[in-house]
Every structure is written in structure tokens, then in C-alpha cells.
Amino acid sequence: MDSNRFEQPPAGHDTAQLMEQILYEVKRVVVGQDRFLERVMVAILAQGHLLVEGVPGLAKTLTVKTLANTIRGDFKRIQFTPDLVPADLVGTRIYNQKTGDFSTSLGPVFTNLLLADEINRAPAKVQSALLEVMQERQVTIAGISHKVPSPFLVMATQNPIETEGTYPLPEAQVDRFMMKVLVDYPSDEEEFVIVQRVTGPAVAVAAVATTEQLAALQAECRCIYVDPSLVQYAVRLVSATRDPAKHGLDELARFITFGASPRATINLTEGARALAMLRGRSYALPEDMTDLIPDVLRHRLVLSYEALSEGFSADQIVGKIMARIPPPAKPLAHEKLAA
């Protein structure tokens, strides 16, 4: 039997060039935030969704809007407020008095890139309506299912400095987000460039790709090779969040009430694939996965009151687990044939 049949095709030059052009166009407008932009691209390629936490004014909306322009996709933004109802998101049936018929008016979730601003300001039923669309990628109105466009990415934001009048997302709903990304203030040098760009002439963003090309990139991402040892590494990490004592982390058991779900293991594997593809490789390396571990796990750990009282954060606990469970030895490119 010819073993070459099992080798995945390498990431093509055209693919790498296209992603480079998309990132270049976005960076012409957005200054800094390279890590955040990288996570947005990973979420798109891996067909996941992002939960972003950061103070106002850090270019979260601008990043997603600019990205939508570069891929000729639709972009919509919903400002979540306490008086929002599910129909404001997904749409509703409208009665036409002249004809006596009902017509369906689709809501703003029918887009390629959706920014759900301050998702924790909307009541639970509105949050549930959005999270259902994220999981099923369709909306049912009056018994008829309507699919959202592809590609489809939801980026929900939370403001960490103002919790008055908010409805925290339940753990089961937060689990549907692939990653939770923390966006920080820019450096002094970056802020200087930001002021120059905002106060200077407007930069026109060129559309360098189409939504069809992006769908093809998503399909290509599924072909990126992930070594079984990397998947086992992800399984051990996630298992350590559920049963720390089993992995020699007895001191962490009292700090974790609930660990991460199997979605975390899947997201780590898919994320490593997407990051490897962004970096121009047709196979994932351990660093592709380790770079994403805090983002994939931080929102999935339910900390005990003891952890909160002692000032422990989810990131600190994830750091201790990563220090205890080492990544596998770097798999070489030729090891793909052993799959």
C-alpha cells in the first residue's frame, strides 16, 4: 500500500499569500492588537466564536468591521441592552394588513461577522437566542428554519470595569465560545501611531478575498495534520482541570469547582490547526497548541469561593497545570506518514 496516500497536502503558496494579504489590509487600519487579530483569524478558520473582554476604545469593533470589508462579507453590530428581546436579534413574523399574510423579517444575526457588544447587558433569554444561533447556525421562526450565511463568526464583548446592571453569562453558555481573549491597552508607541492614523487622512481598505475563498480556507484548515500525541496532550490538560489530583496537582483541587468540557479539547485541536495554517504549515506543532491554551481554558473553569477569596485567577491555575503537564516532543513533518 502506498503510504503517500495518507499525507496531507502542504499549505499552498496561494493560501499563505491570501491570508497575508487579509492581515496586511486589516493592519493598515488597526494598530497593534496583533495577538487579538490572530485570535480572530484562528476563530474564523476553525469556525469558532470569540468572547472578548476589554475596556472601551481598544478597536474591537474596528478590527471586525475592517476584516469584514477585506473579505467582502457582511458586518453587523448589536448593542446589547436590558430591554432587548430575542426578536430584535433573530427576526420575527410581520402581518401585512393589505394581503392578510405574514412575512418573515430576518434579524441582524443573518450576517458573516456579528459583533455582540456588551453581551452581559442583555437578559438571559436574549443571550440564549444568540447562543442558539452560534451552536446550530440557524434560526427557527414560526416553525421554519433559516440558515445564517457562511462563514459566520460571533464576537461578543464584555466590559470588565462596569458590572452594574449586567446579567453574567451562565457557565453552560460561555462554554460555546471557542476562546475568551483579553484585550489590553496599547503601548505608548502604538498609541502614538493610533492618534496619527485616526487624526490623519482616512485609509481605504481593499477587498482582497471573497466569502467563498474564506469558506475554501476553512475546508483546507480541516486538512491540517495534528499528531495524535498533541491530541493526547490536549486531553490530559483538560482532564487535569476536572481531576487535578489524578495528575499530581492535589493543591489545585480545592480551587476548582468544575473543570472544562470536551469542547475545550476539540477547540484546542481545531485552534492548533488554524494557527499552524496561519503560520504557513500543513501540520501543527506543540507551540501552536500551547499558545492557545489560556484563551481556550480561562472561561471554562468554574473557580471555588476559596480560590476567589485567595485571589487566584483562572489564568494562574491554567499556568500551574501547563507547568505540570509538559507538551509532547516536537513532531517532525515526516511523522505525518505514521498516522
Automatic annotation (TrEMBL):
Phylogenetic lineage: Bacteria, Pseudomonadati, Pseudomonadota, Betaproteobacteria, Burkholderiales
Protein name in UniProt: AAA family ATPase
One of the protein's GO biological processes: regulation of DNA-templated transcription
Source domain of life: Bacteria
CDD domains recorded: AAA
SUPFAM superfamilies recorded: P-loop containing nucleoside triphosphate hydrolases
UniProtKB keywords: ATP-binding, Nucleotide-binding
GO MF entry, a single one: ATP binding
Classification via InterPro entries: ATPase_AAA-3, CbbQ/NirQ/NorQ/GpvN, ChlI/MoxR_AAA_lid, P-loop_NTPase, Sigma_54_int
